[in-house]
Task: inverse folding
């Protein structure tokens, strides 16, 4: 009987040591972000192809097109600030500071919502549409793709905020993953905006 049990044990690999384990949820978000980087990379490839090849050496943006660089800079500052408030929220729950967690998540959500509203307002005043030319298509494509990710991030933050108000999180590593995972995603969104802002508005 013992030999049968021993043979059964050999059918499966031994459990990994705790030091070598990666939480499946953290691994999942990192793999997901890797796929998102490739998605944004494809959009950037289209942008630079249109800018270098399709434009045929013409000015970029085309003459008569003005982008609100300083308004976009303000939005950049808002989004970067939200990364710090997100970090504050995570560090607060790690120290079992629930009020800091709630305040950090609330501030991050409000900053992200402000960013999205400013971007929507910007769209109404640009004076060109995505179907006008290659510049319009790539501009709305890149900024719209990022705006969609901000919208998804806001939903994740709202869910984490509601759970935090209900006392669902704690200082133990397995109990604050519900804050850490949205935080990782939010930092990714912030970094991608810096790249989008630099590429579209500055260069």
Result:
């Amino acid at each position: 009987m013992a030999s049968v049990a021993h043979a059964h044990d050999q059918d499966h690999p031994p459990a990994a040591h705790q030091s070598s384990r990666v939480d499946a949820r953290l691994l999942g978000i990192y793999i997901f972000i890797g796929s998102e980087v490739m998605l944004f990379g494809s959009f950037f490839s289209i942008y630079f192809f249109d800018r270098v090849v399709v434009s045929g050496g013409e000015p970029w943006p085309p003459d008569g097109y003005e982008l609100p660089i300083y308004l976009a800079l303000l939005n950049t500052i808002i989004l970067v600030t939200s990364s710090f408030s997100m970090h504050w929220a995570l560090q607060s729950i790690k120290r079992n500071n629930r009020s800091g967690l709630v305040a950090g998540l609330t501030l991050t959500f409000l900053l992200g919502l402000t960013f999205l509203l400013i971007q929507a307002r910007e769209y109404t005043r640009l004076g060109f549409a995505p179907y006008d030319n290659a510049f319009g298509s790539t501009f709305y494509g890149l900024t719209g793709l990022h705006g969609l990710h901000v919208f998804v991030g806001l939903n994740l933050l709202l869910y984490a905020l509601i759970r935090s108000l209900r006392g669902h999180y704690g200082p133990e590593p397995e109990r604050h993953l519900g804050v850490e995972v949205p935080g990782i995603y939010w930092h990714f969104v912030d970094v991608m905006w810096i790249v989008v802002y630099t590429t579209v508005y500055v260069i």
